[in-house]
Specification:
The chain is of the alpha/beta class. Helix content is 47%, strand content 21%. The longest helix is centred in the middle third of the chain and has 19 residues. It is elongated and about 65 Å long.
Length: 281
């Protein structure tokens, strides 16, 4: 479920827009001005920002500039929803680089269609990037690319190369018992932990569905295993379920393999490990 941040100073307009989006299957966060919105964006995951322009404290123009100052949010879709229907304002918004400019009044069907189109366009753009600018984790495509090149390099230099797969063992139950967006939030916390434990030249990738792959050049399996075990044994990851303020634990497990000269194709090894984790889930 995608999360949309609705920024609007009028409470009634904000309620109507949020209702439309919820009916369209989105999770909605709300902010009454740009300052509140900026705090939410920096503290919670947002898939798209839908904002009015004329607001107190920080208007839509200023909010857009502040959001784009941080490279982590360069790919976060930003859409204006406003009564300013003058051509000059529309040209200004699109010239700044906003992803869409929607004028009121708008029907629920039009709003949902425009939001879905913007999200789809953003997903296609993100697919071209090797590193997710929000999480700083590698993409599955980047991991596979580096796995192949590092395997060739390490075999030629007779060096070790280890591949560690980490997985959230209770990911499916987090989805079923709580919600998809909550499980994804737990996954982001696990990703932050793994990134903090890796060396600068290690490759840490988010493989999706609560699964992560870490490529460790020049590290043998007998060293990678205790390193990974230490992380999972000491990790005390949890997230607060907002409805009840209950702390829900995140169970992290791992498997480790060394890629040595004469081994099977490294991509086959990766796929085998990922499939093994899927069976455990």
């Amino acid at each position: 479920m995608k999360t949309i941040l609705v920024v609007e100073d009028s409470g009634s307009s904000r309620d109507i827009t949020s209702h439309f989006l919820q009916q369209g299957g989105f999770r909605v966060l709300e902010a009454e001005d740009g300052e509140v919105a900026l705090a939410i964006i920096k503290s919670q995951h947002v898939d798209l920002i839908l904002t009015d322009i004329m607001m107190p404290k920080m208007d839509g123009w200023a909010l857009y500039r502040e959001v784009r100052k941080d490279h982590k949010f360069n790919l976060t879709p930003f859409v204006f929803l406003t009564v300013l229907d003058e051509l000059e304002s529309q040209i200004k918004g699109l010239s700044l680089g906003v992803d869409d400019y929607i004028t009121k009044p708008v029907t629920p069907q039009q709003l949902i269609a425009r939001v879905n189109t913007t999200l789809l366009r953003s997903e296609r753009l993100s697919a071209y990037f090797y590193i997710n600018p929000v999480s700083d984790l590698g993409t599955p495509g980047y991991l596979r690319h580096r796995l192949q090149t590092e395997a060739v390099r390490c075999r030629a230099a007779n060096q070790h190369l280890s591949l560690v797969i980490f997985g959230i063992g209770n990911y499916v139950s987090l989805v079923v018992q709580n919600a998809q967006w909550f499980a994804e939030s737990c996954s982001r916390e696990a990703g932050k932990l793994l990134l903090s434990k890796a060396r600068e030249y290690d490759v840490v990738a988010d493989m999706g569905q609560g699964c992560f792959a870490i490529l460790l050049p020049n590290i043998s399996a007998d060293k990678a295993n205790p390193w990974a075990a230490n992380i999972t044994n000491k990790a005390r990851l949890s997230q607060v379920w907002p409805d009840t303020e209950q702390q829900i634990s995140i169970d992290l497990g791992f498997s480790c393999d060394s890629i040595s000269p004469g081994d099977q194709d490294p991509i086959e090894l990766l796929n085998k490990q990922l499939a093994s984790f899927e069976r455990k889930w």
